[in-house]
Design a protein that fits this description.
The structure is a single chain. By secondary structure, this protein is mainly β. The chain has two domains: about 1-50; about 55-409, Porin, CATH 2.40.160.10. The chain is built from three helices and 16 strands. It has a 16-stranded antiparallel beta barrel with strand order 1-2-3-4-5-6-7-8-9-10-11-12-13-14-15-16. Strand 13 and strand 14 (about 365-380) form a beta hairpin. It is globular, with a radius of gyration of 29 Å.
Length: about 400
């Protein structure tokens, strides 16, 4: 009886050991199968990328290159030769003019594709194509334009070369004009009438680091062909990517400091002949800018001054000087909650005068605008905006309520 009991016990122990080994082997086999599935999917994705020529790189808002917006910077961080990104914005506004008449307006304002291509790690093509006001249509304001198209030759940290049509590096908005980067539904007027954003010209640029946290950009570009007067005398002088006959040469330079956490501070200047046929009339634009983030707080702004020498050689009432600036203060209300969706509440004050002084001694009135509003980011790449802008212009006053949506990809 004892022998039989011993045999049964031994058999059970051996069976248990075998079953345990089998269970362990099965679990190991399952883990190996799962690992093989993951490797297979990675190989499928990489093969697909090779066939199509690009991978669908998502925007990383923390990655920007050479002062560009996150979407415009995608090609520099893409693992694929071909990169596609962009942004868009549309708005509705209801404005009351100086006579008290209200008018509503709806506009598919901009749709902008970025297309980039890496010929190699150090030769990069970056382009921006703008469809504005719904695109081109006879008798309407819409149009399609190449907003930049350049080649970057990346040499080293201290000196790189950019050749082609590129954004002029002045102020905060010209290079970083994506709608998620400023709080108002419309870009500041300073970045329209004083620094004629979006301002892009043909030329050659050298850029890089002077030392750690101090960068520079120096460029030779086609010059503005400014008009004699009017609020758009600077803005209408942009050559952009259109054909230019016998263009004059201008110089632009910029420095930025980022040595304090959350701070961007810098200045830039532009100097060039003011228009063809009046070579003795020179134009100078100088500006200073700041953008500071600290936890939920953000403060950003720009001030610019424009002067034009020998304006009397252009017209008897030609503009000699202009100025403008704005300061924007916002606070993210989501900091009071557990939400990760940003809700910046903001106020912006702006004062511009595109015709501060004319040759004949006359001047225009300052345009003073105070804007209150709020943004909501349901996703870090998508923004919904509401604001109310109150403007004083001499004895006249107007107000505009606007709502908009914008996105980057």
């Amino acid at each position: 009886m004892k022998k039989i009991s011993f045999a049964i016990t031994t058999t059970l122990l051996l069976s248990s050991s075998v079953l345990g080994d089998n269970t362990s082997d099965i679990q190991a086999l399952k883990a190996e199968i799962q690992e093989l599935k993951e490797i297979t999917q990675i190989l499928i994705d990489e093969t697909s990328d090779l066939k199509t020529g690009f991978s669908y790189t998502t925007v990383d808002k923390e990655k920007t290159y050479s002062g560009l917006g996150a979407a415009a910077s995608k090609v520099y961080f893409s693992s694929s030769p071909l990169s596609i990104g962009g942004y868009g914005e549309m708005y509705y506004q209801n404005a009351k003019d100086e006579d008290g008449v209200r008018t509503g307006k709806m506009d598919v304002y901009r749709f902008i594709p970025y297309i980039g291509y890496k010929f190699s790690d150090d030769i990069i093509l970056n382009t921006e194509i703008e469809f504005e006001h719904g695109g081109a249509k006879d008798g309407e304001d819409g149009y399609v334009i190449i907003e930049f198209m350049y080649l970057d030759f990346l040499l080293n940290q201290n000196a790189n070369i950019r050749v082609g049509n590129f954004l002029v590096p002045m102020g905060l908005i010209s290079e970083r004009h994506e709608p998620t980067l400023f709080t108002t539904t419309q870009r500041p007027s300073t970045a329209k009438y004083i620094i004629p954003t979006t301002w892009h010209e043909n030329g050659v640029m050298v850029y890089g680091d002077i030392v750690d946290n101090l960068t520079y950009k120096v460029a030779a570009i086609t010059s503005l062909q400014t008009e004699a007067n009017g609020s758009k005398w600077i803005r209408n002088g942009r050559g952009g990517s259109f054909t230019q006959i016998d263009p004059k040469l201008g110089v632009v330079a910029r420095v930025d400091y980022t040595g304090i956490n959350g701070l961007l501070a810098g200045a830039s200047f532009y100097h060039a002949p003011s228009l063809n046929g009046a070579a003795n009339s020179k134009m100078l634009i100088a500006e200073a800018h700041i953008d500071y983030h600290h936890d939920a707080l953000r403060v950003y702004g720009t001030y610019a001054q424009v002067s034009r020498s020998n304006a009397k050689n252009i017209a008897v009432d030609a503009v000699e000087s202009a100025n403008g600036g704005y300061i924007n203060l916002s606070y993210d209300l989501s900091s009071f909650t557990s939400s990760v969706k940003s809700i910046p509440l903001f106020v912006q004050y702006e004062n511009i005068n595109p015709e501060q002084k004319r040759v004949d001694g006359s001047s225009d009135d300052d345009k003073i605008t105070t804007t209150l509003g709020v943004n909501f980011f349901p996703h870090e790449q998508v923004v919904l905006k509401v604001d109310h802008a109150m403007q004083k212009y001499g004895t006249d006053s107007t107000d505009t309520t606007s709502i908009s949506m914008g996105f980057i990809f």
